[in-house]
Amino acid sequence: MFRVHLSVNAILQLTDIKMKPGFSVYRKLAGLEWLTGAVRWKSNTRPAPILTAAPVRALIDEQMSIKGHFLPPHCPVTVCARMHSDEGDLWQSFAHYNANESGVLSLTRDPSVGGSYLGCEPMGLFWSIQPAPGEREGLRLRKKNVETPYMVHISLLEGHVSPSEQQITELAAVTAERWYIAPGVKRIEIRQNGVVGTLFVPPGPGPFPAVLDLWGMGGGLIEYRSSLLASRGHISFSLAYFGHKDLPSPPNCINVGDSYFKTAFQLLQDHPQVVSDRIGIIGLSFGCYLALRIATRTGVQPSCLVCINGPMGSTVPLINADGRTDQFESFQEYWNFDDEGRVIFKEISLPANLLPESLVKLEKLDCPLMYIVGEDDLSTSSTENADLIEKSLQSAGKSHLLTRLSYPGTGHLIEPPYSPNARESMWVIKPKKLITMWGGHPAPHAAAQEDAWKKILDYLEKHLRS
To answer: pLDDT tens digits for the chain (466 residues)?
Structure first.
């Protein structure tokens, strides 16, 4: 219902990016495998099968056309994708197809009849990719180094098979590069006036609109959404606010207050390439609460907010009015566990359970707000918070500021399109392993990510550039 084709301008410029030596070796091996398959399927009248991917180098949010050619008419084949995360874990997906009467297969046109997904899903190999059997428990795919691509080995296999089977014939293969950063985007580490983050600046003199990028309770410094926003023409500043070695300890609480976020916003305003009155804020989860807090308490004036699956108050006790928090583990009253011992945080953020002193005073909001809801969110009570936000703005006579998007079957982690959803993942390892539930089902979650990303970019374009 949400299938949207997204394009990337000037992506062909990516051809001048240098590959690591290891990748060239990998491609030679892939070529050898292709030749082996070619010999098996070659006939007197038909060339050996080939597999193509276009564009072979692309940004992560761009669709890719994958096709097989020179196959026997109506033959069963499997298309498989395999790649390694930045941590070295193997991820894979596969789908069963049948070639048409001309011996051609197109993932854009043809339906998968089995495997990791079903139906016509041009990017199904990417959004359905999961840890391969035997990999570590509780993995979640997150790009750590945005200056390198994911190298995805896409192969065409004989018959309807699983990649885990021992006897597999690889007929053809191609390696695709999936990038979070476009050519010419500058990555700049920021350690200034106590502020810790990474700034991404698009190519060219500017001036550009800007976005302050806030993630949630996972902590640290997450860069891949910011680098992608910069690839779309916005200066983007990914801000760390806890769980980072350059921030005040301990790492399991927020030891920076409202002045920290105000300083970060003003750093963007003062940047010579930023249009100072065209700055938005995007926040996921706890970052949603922070975005609302910044816009209503700190005296700065963002041009718009994008909030994804977050509360309108703090889910952790505050130790002062400046927004600093107690240790996260100190507040477990509303933690719930399923039959397998996985923690579900959803009840913590029910409006009735939020700390009253932390609730954002939305009557003070003066900029447009887009609030995005995943209806199967198991980490935050997003629907209930969206209802409260809508009611509060209505009472303040500011209903016109709110744009609300809601997606059924969609979990907490609404990320850039074609990213695989993690319904659950490892939360902490010490003092004991703890897996948390995020929610979401693969196909509807993938459709929501694609639709939401397009709407986010359009929203930022409208309020930051028009």
So the answer is: 333 333 333 333 333 333 333 333 333 334 443 433 343 455 557 799 999 999 999 999 999 999 999 999 999 999 999 999 999 999 999 999 999 999 999 999 999 999 999 999 999 999 999 999 999 999 999 999 999 999 999 999 999 999 988 788 899 999 999 999 999 999 999 999 999 999 999 999 999 999 999 999 889 999 999 999 999 999 999 999 999 999 988 888 889 999 999 999 999 999 999 999 999 999 999 999 999 999 999 999 999 999 999 999 998 878 888 888 877 765 788 899 999 999 999 999 999 999 899 999 999 999 999 999 999 999 999 999 999 999 999 999 999 999 999 999 999 999 999 999 999 999 887 778 899 999 999 999 999 999 999 999 999 999 999 7
Element (H, E) at 283: strand 274-284
CA distances from 376 to 99, 309, 380, 406, 435 (A): 36, 10, 10, 10, 17
Pairing of strands 76-84, 90-98: antiparallel
User: What is the pTM (predicted TM-score) of this model?
Assistant: 0.89
450: β partners: none
Going by C-alpha positions, the residue among 273, 284, 267 that lies closest to residue 234 is 273
Do 250 and 238 form a contact (C-beta atoms < 8 A)?
no
What positions carry a catalytic annotation?
A: 285, 377, 412
Rounded distance between C-alpha atoms, residue 388 and residue 317, angstroms? 20
**In Å, what is the CA distance from 33 to each residue of 45, 97, 350, 462?**
22, 20, 54, 48
Contact between 375 and 383 (Cβ < 8 Å)? yes
- Give dist(CA 283, CA 279) in Å, integer: 14
